[in-house]
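Reopening this ticket.

The earlier resolution said the output was attached, but the attachment link was broken on my side. Pasting everything inline this time so it's all in one place.
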Amino acid sequence: MAYVRRRGNQLAIVRGEREPGTGNVQQRILFTIYSKAEALEILGRSENQGRWNFESLFRHQFPDVKVNWTAIRRGIEGNLDGLPDLHEYRSERLRGRFREQLSAFTKQLILADPQDLVSSSHLIQEHRHELEYLADLIAWRLKLRDQKQNEWNEDNPFYWRFALQGRGVPPDTEEHTAGFYERGEYDKAEAVFGLLVDCFDGYAEGYNYLGLIAYEQRKLDVAAARFEKTVEVGRKLFPARLSKKRYWSDHATRPYMRGLRNLALALNESARYDEALAVCERLENECGDDFSAASHRAAIYLNTRKWEQAAAFAKQSGGGLNPAGGFVEAFALFELGRFEELLPAFLRAALNCPGAAHMLVGERTPAPKNRDEAEDHNTGVSERRTLHAYLANQTRASRKFFRALVRDSRVARLLDESTAVARRWAQEHHKGDRTAFDRMTLIRSPQFAAAEARKLLDLLPPTGYWRAPSRAAPRPA
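Inline output:
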């Protein structure tokens, strides 16, 4: 709980915090009040009535701090006489910390002269991505330095908006840095996100991006450790007394849930299946995220050759949000000898992700030509990685069957139409003609897949073809 205490001729809003390890309680200064004029503004007794503005900014800066504003105002009221009437806020609150840290950084940069010491050149080389980012940031800040004041960018005489900007990374900064990751500039993305998590306490999404970068670089143990850090930091962002049903609707929970989902992904690909299943339990029981838990479980059970569980969880997770779940369901159903059931499941997934279907049977695919095809391609890459152990040990019979299924002229024609109609919709949607969209929606529906599957029964293996699947453990990936 926050409270007010005197600090010489200043007042401070503080909170007691226990030090890790020792357990000793230390006072953390949250905000300093420098003058009687500022105190009166906080109390709402000035002409500007700034009380609500201050309390809103304070909550934004410290969302995890419990505040009894009546007690805070009482503490300020009782100590007004000890405050000076006025204070030089520009030098103290606006320039002070900025100038101090700018000077410290400038000094370090001046001393690290690559021409003078080879160790300095190594240091600059080590931090080249961070320094390049800062050079661009400085240029951008200088370009925008001449701004006219308006109601949206003005601050008050006490510089509350500058002092209480919030602890999070600004959205445009995160978006800019995420662009490095999305363009595959992983070294630069890793460097800048690493810098951001050092700059901003509790930046869980930064650890999540660092985990994704390691995952894309196939550093699976590093990725898992970073996703675990995402979960650890993300859990501290939760508001008090949050019900399970609000986990996804409350934005504060999203880094935590993303961290758990990605952790399950990395653990599965690392063949750490028991740990991955434990994460699925947390997704389901802590977060109420049955869908993600089922999707990960389906892949894990397929990789560990537990066909019944794989088929059941794939069916649970498949559908509009995860059409690729039909691939997992179909693979498991083949191993169970339930051939008629696998056709609609596989066809539904293939019509939604035709490129992924070709990739999963080992065929080459052309370069994506639009966003829909890029997402399809990424689905194929993701499924091949997620189902790594199953695909590495897939039986010859299964591989032969699904390849023949995709190559069948009737199926090939349907997949080509799904791709063509999606392209047409991407090209023509701005004209207001929904013909292509309606056809695409129909082709990708479960009902259409089921109807077309009934026309393909001649592709199924003959009666007596199936034999009990081997329960041997998969070879290491």
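Reporter confirms the inline version is readable. DSSP finds 24 helices and three strands in the chain. The radius of gyration is 29 Å.
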